[in-house]
Amino acid sequence: MALIFHLLQFLLFITHHANAFNPFIPTDALSLLSFKNSVSSDPLNLLSGWTHFSSSTFCSWYGVTCGGDGRVTSLNVTGLHGGELTASIGDMSELRVLSVAGNMFSGKIPVSLLNLRELEVLELQGNNFSGKVPFFKMSCFEKLKLVNLSGNAFSDTLPNGLVFSRNVKIVDLSSNQFSGSIPLNDSSSCDSLKYLKLSNNFLKGEIPPQIGKCRNLRTLLVDGNILEGEIPYEIGNIVELRVLDVSRNSLTGGIPIQLANCLKLSVLVLTDLFDDRGGSDEGSLVDDRFRGEFNAFVGNIPHEVLLLSSLRVLWAPRANLHGRLPPAGWTDSCSLRVLNLADNYVTGSVPESLGMCKNLTFLDLSSNNLVGYITLHQLRVPCMTYFNVSRNNISGMLPGFRKERCKLSSVVALEPVFLELEGLNDAYLNIPVLRFQQNAFIGSGFEETIVVSHDFSWNSFAGSLPLFFLGDYLFTPTRNVSYMLSLNNNKFNGTIPYRLVSNCNDLKTLSVNLSANQLSGEISQELFLGCLQLTDFEAAYNQIDGSIVPSIGELALLQRLDLSGNKLSGALPNELGNLKNMKWMLLGGNNLTGEIPYQFGGLSSLVVLNVSHNALIGTIPTTLTNATSLEILLLNHNNLSGEIPLSVSALSKLVQLNVSFNNLSGHIPHLQHPSDCDSYIGNKNLHSCSDIYFDPPYNSVPIAVNNSHSRRGRKVKTVVIALAISAFVALCILLGIVLVICFRRSKITRISSIRRQEVVTFQIVPIELSYDSLVTATGNFSIRYLIGTGGFGSTYKAELSPDFLVAIKRLSIALWESGPKEKLMGLLKIALTCTEETLSIRPSMKIVLEKLKQLKS
């Protein structure tokens, strides 16, 4: 009996562990182990439990789901760092969901995936897969519903059998390298297709008119390709269409009126959704290779499309659109939240009926040809987080803002319209609102910061400045609000009121630009004391008088102060030295007196200080060298005396120092970034600039002096050198003007819409020329005005008057260091030939350059 009992125990043991040694290990388990072995990095040890298994234990592994029969039906793994898909994946024939998104996998897709006839969801996005997608038979994936291959490096043509399969609902092939045309023809099947995203590839040809067959399509995104032709009118047959983005292609033609048949259309994007014209690509949502806008449509957006009650986002800046906005038609049923028609050719006035769109939170009509008056009450500007009508010709007065009852939803990011598609989390609508309203989420406790911008600049608004305020709905205990108000380059007059923004104390920061108007009078103390949140205050080029009020020193957040070009008088307040965050202090072109406060040395963040063209006296305070962030220091055209502090040479970031036309004396300090000698002229007691740099920006030419020469010989040589340099400088100016005359024989290029008068002869140059005028026009021959450099020197752009633009050639003195007399005479002869009035006698630019080369050799 004991023997039989032990035999039974042994049989039970063998039976229990039989699967561990079974040569017929389930195929699915082997496929999973092969998948694990192909992973090159698993930093989170997600697959560490994929080891011991029986016929059923592998179903509990991370990312694995099995059906009732023990077969694997879903593999959903993310968080790995490298690897590839092996052919054994195709052996899991019951697989319905294959999701390996965001694993940095590479290589090609195995053809064995064609064996997965039960597959319903295929998600390979966010990897580095490349090559051709091996899906070419529609019959292979009759059950497939969702395909996402975005963010890889797939190439070749689009897999037709995958995109337009009979049951596919959602397809995302964006951000790859697919080429060729969109494979949609009369035989294609797309009855079930609801979401198609082909963005950011290299697709060419036209948008096929057969797209109109996809009547259940709700989202069509073909932006960022090389598509040509027109938007097909057949799109109007897609009655379920909610979102259409055709931006960043090369489309032409008109906007089809048939789009008005898409009664559910919510988002229409015609040009670049991601181009903020800000110059910086930081935070860009698309790869640089996809940037750039080439769509150039014809005509206007049909009013029937603009007035669609379902339309929430219309994005069409720089689309070459013409025509007027609908004079009427918007009603209470308007759903419009975002309207961007900036940089087009829209004419007429801003219609009052647009104010019926109570949800409108983003309106950009800048850089058009709009005229007439604007009714701010009707437009509910206080409820808008972004309002821009700059660079038009809108006129009239701005009435004071009034309190508005704004809908809370107007500030909330637009919710996705695709939530009814199960499994799809597309925040397409969130992107433009969050990006272009400049919303950001910062800090702890889920505090929200929103930047509100109202821009009325570059118009013809007149009258006194009104009182501005924002809708109360913006201010909540968990939200910080920053406000940017731009009123510059208009015709506002009167004084600056002591209150500009009524909500000022509720703001986190405030930026105000009042420059280039007709404002006058004094700035009151209360303006700054009542709004300590100011970070930028610009009121340059007005007629403001009085003194700079000391209360500015209370603005601890102030970073930019620009009061240039006014009639301010009095001394610089010492309190300005308290502004530890100050970066740009621009006070030039006033009547300021007194000394530069030594407290300015405490401005540790100061980058630019401009107090030029005033009547300042005293010495340059040595404490200024403590402002170690200084890059530009402009003290010219004052009455400063004493020496330039030698410690200025310790300012490593200083790239421009101008102390010209003062009463300075002593030595010029050795700067790490030397300034032109023109930055020191006009100081009769200042040592010669040539002691340090021999007449920059010319090439430095050391002059050796033989100590054995007699004193008389040294004086004669000094006189000769001085006369030669003076003559050469004059000839350089003359030659620069002459070269311009020769170069501008046919026509003058139109620059910045400013009319240019053609200069035919030297005798009829329409402005008095002087060395000082050239110095001023080129910013002391600053690198900002540098056009180019060559073998004979440097060329600078100089706008001598609003209607006279020239190029100034400053020749390098190093070219003439030997035999100056003969070469100067040759240079004069060339210059004289260029002044001939007879065209047949006057040499061409090519001949002038050849003669200069001969003269140089």
UniProtKB/TrEMBL annotation:
Domain of life of the source: Eukaryota
Compartments reported by the entry: Cell membrane; Membrane
Alphabetized GO MF terms: ATP binding
Keyword annotations: ATP-binding, Glycoprotein, Leucine-rich repeat, Membrane, Nucleotide-binding, Receptor, Repeat, Signal, Transmembrane, Transmembrane helix
Membrane topology: Single-pass membrane protein; Single-pass type I membrane protein
InterPro entries (UniProt xref): Kinase-like_dom_sf, Leu-rich_rpt, Leu-rich_rpt_4, LRR_dom_sf, LRR_N_plant-typ, Protein_kinase_ATP_BS
Entry GO terms, CC: plasma membrane
Leucine-rich repeat-containing N-terminal plant-type domain segment(s): 26-66
Membership in a protein family: Belongs to the RLP family.
Protein name according to UniProt: Leucine-rich repeat-containing N-terminal plant-type domain-containing protein
Source organism (scientific name): Trifolium subterraneum
Lineage: Eukaryota, Viridiplantae, Streptophyta, Embryophyta, Tracheophyta
